[in-house]
Amino acid sequence: MVGTDISTLSRTAGAAFRGNEIGFIFQDFNLLPVLSVYENVEYPLLMIKPTPEAERRNRVMQLLEAVGMLDQAEKRPDQISGGQKQRVAVARALVTNPKLVLADEPTANLDHDTAFMVINLMKQMRDQFGTTFVFSTHDPRIVGEAEVIHHLEDGLLKDSEVKGGVIHG
Question: Looking at residue 165, what is its pLDDT?
Answer without folding.
Answer: 54
